[in-house]
Amino acid sequence: TVRVTRATCGAGLREGTGFVAGPHLIVTNAHVVAGTADPGTSVRVVDGDGRSHRGRVVQYAPRDDLAVVRVDTLDAAALPLATEVVAGTTGWVYGHPDGRSIRVRPFRAGAETTAVLPDGDGGEPLRRRIVAVRALLAHGDSGSALVATDGTVIGVAFAVSPEDPSLSLAVAPSAVRAALGAAESAGPDASEVPTGTCSTAG
User: Fold this and answer.
1) Nearest alpha carbon to residue 64 among 26, 28, 112, 110
2) 56 to 22, 121, 127, 172, 196: CA distances (angstroms)
3) Which of 71, 123, 172, 182 has the lowest tally of Cβ within 10 angstroms?
4) Distance between CA atoms of 17 and 166, rounded to whole angstroms?
5) Would you tell me how many other CB atoms lie within 10 Å of the CB of residue 94?
């Protein structure tokens, strides 16, 4: 698990979490890297040893709230994606709440399902493949891998219910696999892709 930061148009940083999903490829949420102020230099990935790496967004899928960041200088083992999510699956969320050191918390998941959710950009509601989980997450945990007891990733955390702070939502592995596949197909020399209008939103 890594910490992902990007410079906002203002004076601060937007912080989130990501995980290694392939050779030199980090998966995180689209809203973590959205509207980078200075494309090519503003996305930074901090590894488990505290080293900071420059990254570039090579896949941006806001509909699923996913982004894939290529980090040429990061060499770490990838976490495998689950092929299915069974209700009752348990495991651990690995995140960086509020940009702090890694914190590990337990989760219990429901089955992968389709839900109609608000569009983060204020557009029409979208049908998305998600996994609902019982876990206590916080700001900065966006992009965290939900790692089941068998070592596979069953989802990528992206939201906490405003009505129930113990209920969180994760992007389903089927959507993650699609975004990762597109990034892998682009190859190691893939260029930075647009990430929307520069924004200071947290």
Assistant:
1) 28
2) 15, 22, 28, 23, 14
3) 123
4) 19
5) 21
The dihedral of CA 134, 135, 140, 143: what is its sign?
negative
| Distance of alpha carbon 176 from alpha carbon 12, whole angstroms | 28
Q: Is the dihedral of CA 164, 165, 167, 173 positive or negative?
A: positive
What are the tens digits of pLDDT across the range 103-128? Answer: 999 999 999 999 888 766 666 788 88
Half-sphere exposure of 73 (CA within 13 A, CB side): 10
The model's pLDDT over 38-73, given as tens digits with 9 standing for 90+, comes to 655 578 999 989 999 999 999 999 989 999 999 999
CA distance 82 to 155: 8
DSSP for the chain reads: -EEEEEE-SSSSEEEEEEEEEETTEEEE-HHHHTT-SSTTTSEEEE-TTS-EEE-EEEEEEGGGTEEEEE-TT---PPPPBPS---TT-EEEEEE-GGG-S-EEEEEEE---EEEEE--TTSSS-EEEEEEEEE----TT-TT-EEEETTS-EEEEEEEE-SS-TTEEEEE-HHHHHHHHHHHHHH-TTPPP----S-----
Q: Supply the pLDDT for residue 144.
A: 96
- For residue 162, give the amino acid letter: P
